[in-house]
Amino acid sequence: MSSPPRKHLTGFLALYGALAVCLLGTAGLVWAVDPLQVFRRASFYEPIIESDERTQNAGLLRSYPAQGLLIGSSLSQACRADDFTKALGTDFLRISAAGMTAKEWRYFLETRIMRRKPARVVDIQYWFTFGRTNAMDFREEYGAFPTHLYQPGALDIAKYLINYDNIGMAINVLAEAAGFSAIERIDFQSRNSPEADPRRTTGVASVRRLYNQIAGGRKPDAAFLAAERNRMLAAFDEFYAPFILDHQEIQFDIVVPPFTLAYYQAFKSAGVYRLNTILLFRQKLAELAREAPNVRIHDFGVDDRFLSDYDNFYDTHHFSATICARIADDIAAKPAGDGAEAVIEGTQRLKALVDDAELPW
């Protein structure tokens, strides 16, 4: 068989060469701008804030230098890292993800330790996400968990560099730096606060709205509640407690978050077995505090200042930045925490409060 004409071969080589130059050029652009901050912290541009926190957190964990880490689910989204930095005297970075599971929690911390080990972790913990699932990417609206951004290998880096969305973000960043456009942003360390999202409101009406959804919704059957309890225990024993015990060099300040009494009442209405799961989670934290010398428990779950403070709650359990700042100040004022016995006593008190509570509607 005869070889193709030279001019055809030259054309093919020129085409492939042009494609290679385009790929290398776009990959070089993404690497230089690094819009998700996977390789380095943003320097010549303001960071782009991804609506998906699981995508955004990769760059924060890998590239932001801080000795302290504030971590939590949607409960911590209104918290400001600066409040904890000011109160505790350590530079803090906040990592949050709505619906964070115990497995995700561990993965976030493993990624952080690989880059720079935190000296202190303030952990705002929530029983509900322990009971939902032990998976990494369990809700369709989040899509697959972007593990390639957290602990990337060679193929993962290539995937990041040659990605249509990342190329678009890099071009937008350069356009903004040149004054041709403006990218809409929110403060990634104060997400979902009234300042960042004025549509969010606090007060009795907001609390009552979610209370009615929980208390008036379909009552889960006994099999569902038993499975939820068992998942919570399994997640705690497999992902949470062992990680803390294996990292004695890190101080864990575990925050039992403040909820309104309406929250506990709602779940009691939905099934007393579910309320017992919440109380069991508190018991597990107390047991961990006895076993782990690097754990400090800060119990705000029975704090009278917050149980009926509806003006600082968006719903039955998501609290405002004002409460977050109080939490930071209280941790600073009581660095040893509340102790296991105090948490157990608080659990009994909470149970009595829920039984006798009167709601403001």
Helix/strand structural class: alpha/beta
Mean pLDDT: 84
State the CATH superfamily name of the domain at 67-144 and 186-356. SGNH hydrolase
Which regions contain 5 or more consecutive residues with pLDDT less than 50?
Answer: 186-199
Looking at CATH, which topology of the domain at 67-144 and 186-356 would you report? Rossmann fold
Strand order of the largest sheet: 2-1-3-4-5
Number of strands: 5
Apparent shape: elongated
Main β-sheet description: 5 strands, parallel
The portion of residues forming beta strands comes to: 5-15%
The CATH architecture classification of the domain at 67-144 and 186-356 is 3-Layer(aba) Sandwich
First and last CA, distance: 89 Å
CATH class of the domain at 67-144 and 186-356: Alpha Beta
Secondary structure tally, helices? 15
Query: Helices and strands, in N-to-C order?
Result: HHEHEHEHHHHHHEHHEHHH
Helix content: 40-55%
Radius of gyration based on Cα positions: 24 Å
